[in-house]
Amino acid sequence: MTEAAPIVIAGAGLAGALLAAQLAGHGHRVAIFERRGDLRREQVAAGRSINLALAARGWEGLRRANATTQVLEYALPMRGRMLHDRAGQTQFQTYGLDADEVIWSVHRGRLNQTLMDVAAQAGAQLHFHARLDAVDFASRRVHFVDERDQSAMIVDFSVLIGADGAGSTVRAAMEAEQPLGQTTDFLDHGYKELNIPPRADGKPALDPDALHIWPRGGYMLIALPNPDASFTATLFLPHHGDTSFAAYADASTARAWFARDFADALALIPDFDQQYQAHPVGALGTLRCPRWRQGDRALLIGDAAHAIVPFHGQGMNCAFEDCVALLDLIEKRDGDPTLDWEAVFADFESERRGNTHAIAEMALENYVEMRETVADPGYQLRRQLELELAKRLPGHFIPRYSMVMFTSIPYALARERGELQRALLEQLTRGKHTLEDIDLDAAQRLAAQHIPALAP
User: Which whole-number Å values give the CA distances from 402 to 219, 232, 447, in the listed order?
Assistant: First the structure.
């Protein structure tokens, strides 16, 4: 029997480690239990790391855990998208209007290591190789098994937080008590990672200030920069069909296909065959779970509650925003003699559910935009007009991408306003070919009339 910890967090991934750091930093006693070994001492498996896009919501979570300084040491700013066509020609599309409107490429493993350090420094207890075996919600006890010697460990808790990812064991334990109504909708697309090394002189092989995209309609390749001048490239492709992972199951057929569709990228991967054969194909899905809580005893956060596909770069950012929202709700009640966890959990679920649903849908929509729409002249004209109206109506007309990535505007509101703005942009650009064809003063008046002003 270990010493009882009032807050037990299952999962020392990004959300679990960040929440532990935030709670311990505010004086709460916290213990994390992680099935894997300590990532600070063990190497992350190749091909499973997808680089992450850190945006405003994520930075706020890091700020609340006093982790921004450490992460800035290796986070790389990306100012926009660099599109690569089949002929190897490139086109740069800026993300925002201002120089500080950038997203940041971070290595998942290194960020996780940083957050574990910050959590430990804040006073959280970290336990590794601890597989969650069972939860007794009535007696507030969780049973773990040490994966190294199969010894049992029983831990008392007052609150159990499931931050153990899309395959959450805590969620499974809650489901066994009372059905949650959960569903997971898997895409018929998967992903495979490839590494683009630095050039022979040690410099990046691609522009390090951009997120690179090779949009090809039904599939795409992307690449994000790393601090060592390499890039982590990710191929998103259907599982089955004429152009699919099934069709290109071996490296030789994949190489011939890359030579046709991604020739400029293939030229930058000298060990393509070895990487393609060795790196696994990952699955992509959206988890929808109608219930995230078990009375005043347990709560799911992050991917354990609402896993999404990665195409808006918001999975981590959304999970970090979960941590901030939960901390705020706890802090509001910290003066009470007895913290009402059931009320905290109910308020958390009420506040976050609609927003997590909205970002799940926007992530699915963004996959189509990234692999197909970004190269369309009509999209590019709408984007030019969108940025022009954003300049003319600051704080009023804000591109949906900017609302999601550069602000803390609730996801649900961003999606609602984004739909209004999309309809207006389509109306204003219908039959037009260039920005000069549009009466910008009239467009500004129409936007001000139809798009409600944001509350200050």
Answer: 24, 24, 17
Closest CA to 30 of 57, 11, 49, 53: 11
Rounded CA gap, 195 and 188, in Å? Answer: 24
CB-CB contact of 290 with 174 (8 Å): no
Q: How far apart are CA 269 and CA 363, in angstroms?
A: 29
Q: Give the position of tokens 């100012």.
A: 79
Cα-to-chain-centroid distance, residue 147: 29
pLDDT at 401 over 90: yes
CA distance 110 to 154: 31
Within 10 A of 278 (CB to CB), how many other CB atoms are there? 11
Residue 355: Cβ-neighbour burial (10 angstroms; 0-12, 13-18, 19+): buried
180 alpha carbon, distance to own chain's centre: 24
Crossing angle for the helix pair 440-450 and 377-392, to the nearest 10 degrees: 70
Cβ contact 111:71 at 8 Å: yes
DSSP 375: G
Task: Check whether 98 has a pLDDT greater than 90.
Answer: no
pTM: 0.94
- CB–CB of 191/282 below 8 Å? yes
pLDDT tens-digit map of 312-354: 999 999 999 999 999 999 998 876 667 899 999 999 999 999 9
- The mean pLDDT of the chain is 94
User: Cα separation of 394 and 303, whole Å?
Assistant: 34
Q: What is the dihedral of CA 130, 132, 134, 140, to 10 degrees?
A: 80
pLDDT band at 454 (very low <50, low <70, confident <90, very high): confident
Of the candidates 438, 316, 451, the residue with the CA atom closest to the CA atom of residue 381: 438
Decide: 159 and 297 in contact? Cβ < 8 Å.
yes
For the chain, list the domains and their CATH numbers.
Answer: 5-76+106-181+287-367 (3.50.50.60), 185-284 (no CATH), 376-450 (no CATH)
The span from the CA of 57 to the CA of 352, in Å, is: 14
CA distance 266 to 256: 10
